[in-house]
Amino acid sequence: MKQIADLMLGERFTAFFVVRRKELKKKKNGDPYVTFDFADASAHIDAVWWDFAPDLFGKNDTDIVEVGDVVKVAGNVEEYHGVRQIRVEKIRRAKPEDGVDMSKLVPAVETDRQALWQNFRKMIDSVTNPFLLSLLRRIFDDEAIAKKFIDAPGGKLWHHNYLGGLMEHTLHIATICDRLAKIYPAVDRDLLVAAALVHDLGKIESYTFGPNFDYTDAGRLLGHIVIGSQMVAAKINEFPEFPKELAMKLQHLVLSHQGKLEQQSPVVPMTREAFLLYYADEIDSKLNAFDRISKDERPAGAKWSKFVNLLGRYLYLGEK
Fold first, then answer.
1. Burial tier of 268 (Cβ tally within 10 Å: 0-12, 13-18, 19+)
2. Helix, strand counts (H, E) of the chain
3. Domain 113-295, CATH number (from 3.30.70, 1.10.3210, 1.25.40, 1.10.10)
4. In angstroms, how far is CA 230 from the centroid of its own chain?
5. Torsion angle, CA of 67/73/76/78, rounded to 10 degrees?
6. pLDDT digits 0-9 by tens, 110-134
7. Is residue 162 a contact partner of residue 217, using CB atoms and an 8 Å limit?
């Protein structure tokens, strides 16, 4: 099956993609056209369907395909502002008889997920505080939680947006925190690492797992920070001997890990451990997004990225 990363400029092709975005627009003369963002396991790409004609499909058929659908596309590859773009000639929803290989459509972490899981469990076992160790085991020995955690994406679009991305992101942050605790001896290493391991736990209930990564109703209405805090609190409540102050400190780290109120943290960091967790999260999320931009969104032959709105700057990518 042809994949986005393999498409060459000027190539005519037929392939299957997942629709990440769809928008109906109008030309200057008032005629409609549709723009898309298509994705598969290899990359994503913008597309435009210039010859969209609603009367061919019914009066309201901007819904011939929906965001999240798997579609069969015939088209060719063009260049727009130095970036590859698909000109759509034909598009329809995929049918069961098409025999689409979903593993080619849904991106996944490159590292074996079971190997990551074993390393994740080793990080849990490195926690020596008996209350925190018991809590972590109660959470991740829960098969319903573990199954989702192993497969969950770490984000919708910005960073770690692939199956296994949440586990990879979490393990990276716990590793960074473990090393930072060696530099700053006043830090409670076990509290910091435990918080790193559960800081994004709410994402297992906040995102769909494919073929398109999107928010669940709970993800939109509550957000992953609140959901994760509730999940941790529920497990703490299972054993009343858990120290109240330790529970409060752990909850503070979960609730403050995005650092700022405008970044959806209910509170801002107010402890040493909370500051370190926030910056560790920033490091891993930003560098993963940098890698994605360098791989998937680099203009042809360019050393610089397009303007990145979320960062408010261009990124220097260097030689490809």
1. middle
2. 9, 5
3. 1.10.3210
4. 21
5. 10
6. 889 999 999 999 999 999 999 999 9
7. no
Per-residue pLDDT reduced to its tens digit, 202-252? 999 999 887 878 899 999 999 999 999 999 999 999 989 999 999 999 999
Amino acid at 177: C
CA pseudo-torsion sign 51, 54, 58, 61: positive
Could you state, in order of their start, the residue ranges of all structural domains in the chain?
4-104, 113-295
pTM of the predicted protein model: 0.83
Query: CA 160, 164, 169: angle at the middle one, nearest 5?
Result: 50
CATH class for the domain made up of 4-104: mainly beta
DSSP class of residue 218 equals H
- Do 129 and 190 touch, CB atoms closer than 8 A? yes
The alpha carbon dihedral of 91, 96, 99, 100 has a sign of positive
213, 153 Cβ separation under 8 angstroms: yes
Q: Residue 69 in contact with residue 105, Cβ under 8 Å?
A: no
The C-alpha atoms of residue 8 and residue 2 are separated, in whole angstroms, by: 11
Give the Å distances, CA to CA, from 92 to 58, 76, 85, 241.
14, 16, 19, 58
Query: Per residue in 68-98, is it b (16+ CB within 10 Å) or e — as a string?
Result: ebbbbbebebeeeeeebbbebeebeebeeee
- Give yes or no for a contact between 196 and 173, defined as CB atoms under 8 angstroms apart: yes
Burial (CB < 10 A; 0-12, 13-18, 19+), residue 62, is middle
